[in-house]
Amino acid sequence: MLLIDGDLRRPRLGKLFGLQFATGLSDALLAEDNGTITLDSVVRPSTVPGLHVLPGGSEPANISKLLHSAHLDSLIELARSQYDFVLIDSPPMMAWPMRAF
Q1: C-alpha closest to that of 66 among 14, 23, 27, 15
Q2: Is 15 helix (H, G, I), strand (E, B) or coil?
Q3: Got the DSSP string for 27-79?
Q4: What tens digit of pLDDT does each residue of 19-63 get?
Q5: Between the N and C ends of the chain, which has fewer C-beta atoms within 10 Å?
Q6: Taken in order 32, 20, 7, 63, is the CA torsion positive or negative?
Q7: Can you give the pTM of this predicted structure?
Q8: Biggest alpha carbon distance in the chain?
């Protein structure tokens, strides 16, 4: 299983797994100039058996542009081909409390 920290504004999985200073998702997407993404340099094993972590990495200047790039699609497809399960931790969808209707 691969756990990806997709909350690039407030990445927390790196800290949770002791990888807060490791290269990660943003670094892989920023370095993607030649069309080939390799997960080996950014995915780290965790202390949980069978769980690998892709931390958020360094904070990029233009996060929304980076997350809407074709490079992210390529990275997710590559992850799907190498792992049985791919979980992406994303930022909250709503900034205000939900009301019961």
Answers
A1: 27
A2: helix
A3: HHHHT--SS---STTT-EE-SSTT-EEE---SPPS-HHHHHTSHHHHHHHHHH
A4: 877 788 988 888 766 556 678 888 999 999 999 999 998 887 888
A5: C
A6: negative
A7: 0.82
A8: 50
